[in-house]
Amino acid sequence: MLTMSSVRDYLAENGRASLEDIAVHFDSSPEAARQVLDHWLAKGRVRRFEQGGGCGKASSSCSCASKPQEIYEWTSV
Question: How much is the pLDDT for 61?
């Protein structure tokens, strides 16, 4: 079940996870998971960054469809 405490425990145990992994783990939508993660972001307990995406071409005409993943990391404050 997707709750603030369950997401806290999941990230504290795993260190970091993608938005997609969190949504799948809790059988929820990415939007619902993001709302819970936004709570922890506002409290300074979670850090968000993007990983991957892009095709590595130097040209601005890159047409690859790869999107960066949202990664969330639990911070020990």
Answer: 58
Give dist(CA 39, CA 30) in Å, integer.
14
**Is residue 59 in a domain?**
no
- Rounded CA-CA distance 33/74 in Å is 15
In a domain, 58, yes or no: no
**26 within 8 A of 17, measured Cβ to Cβ:** no
Per residue in 9-62, pLDDT (tens digit) is 999 999 999 999 999 999 999 999 999 999 999 999 999 999 876 565 555 555
Q: How many domains does the chain have?
A: 1
